[in-house]
Design a protein that fits this description.
This protein has helices at about 1-30, 30-50, 55-80, 85-105, 105-115, 115-135, 140-160, 165-200. With about 200 residues, it is mainly α. The chain has one domain. The protein is elongated, with a radius of gyration of 20 Å. The relative contact order is 0.15.
Length: about 200
């Protein structure tokens, strides 16, 4: 009598596992999104680090674009995350709001970001550290985000002691480095997801 009752449960478990595998395969098929965004981040870093006497308006717009790219990534992660989706959504909304402010008032954005650069780097660094530990089981290169986050927190405390004019130059350099680290991390993540897709 127990055998017929166990058989449907086994069938439902097999179906659930099959659906789960199909969903994972579909998500892994989007590995190229991380590759594209990683390349975009690296291009942004090259553009920022090439500036010598660029206009403040242009720099503000580039910073806004960086925020918007990062916000989109957070929403994509929220859509595919197995748990804690609200965390990605909250950070996506906050980062997206920063991007909109930067687009509407780029000159003030540059001045404001330079003034609160230490707090900005601290926020980004803490988020990268949190994300590293959240993704630890699913991401074999989680330590890359952890190292980047720790470096960003160190830069946050160092930058907080600088004068405004020095902060403005530091903003250019560190924004470029931030974009570069983000790009490298996304490219590594893209090929990691691709290898998972091949295994599935």
């Amino acid at each position: 009598m127990s055998t017929p009752a166990a058989t449907p449960d086994f069938g439902q478990s097999a179906t659930a596992m099959s659906d789960s595998r199909d969903a994972a395969r579909a998500v892994a098929g989007l590995w190229w999104l991380w590759l594209v965004t990683g390349v975009a981040w690296i291009i942004a870093s090259v553009v920022i680090l090439q500036f010598n006497q660029a206009s403040i308006t242009t720099i503000g717009i580039i910073i806004g674009a960086m925020f918007m790219f990062s916000a989109v990534q957070q929403f994509v992660l929220a859509a595919v995350a197995p748990s804690l989706r609200w965390l990605w959504i909250v950070f996506g909304i906050l980062i997206g709001a920063c991007g909109l402010v930067a687009f509407f008032n780029p000159a003030a954005t540059f001045a404001g970001l330079a003034d609160v650069l230490g707090f900005l780097f601290l926020t980004v660094g803490v988020w990268w550290i949190i994300r590293a530990f959240v993704e630890r089981e699913a991401n074999p290169v989680w330590w890359l985000s952890l190292i980047s986050g720790v470096l960003m927190v160190i830069m946050a405390f160092w930058t907080s002691g600088q004068f405004f004019i020095q902060k403005a130059y530091v903003l250019l350099v560190f924004a470029g480095i931030w974009a570069l680290m983000h790009g490298v991390t996304d490219i590594v993540r893209a090929f990691t997801v691709r290898s998972v897709r091949d295994e599935l």
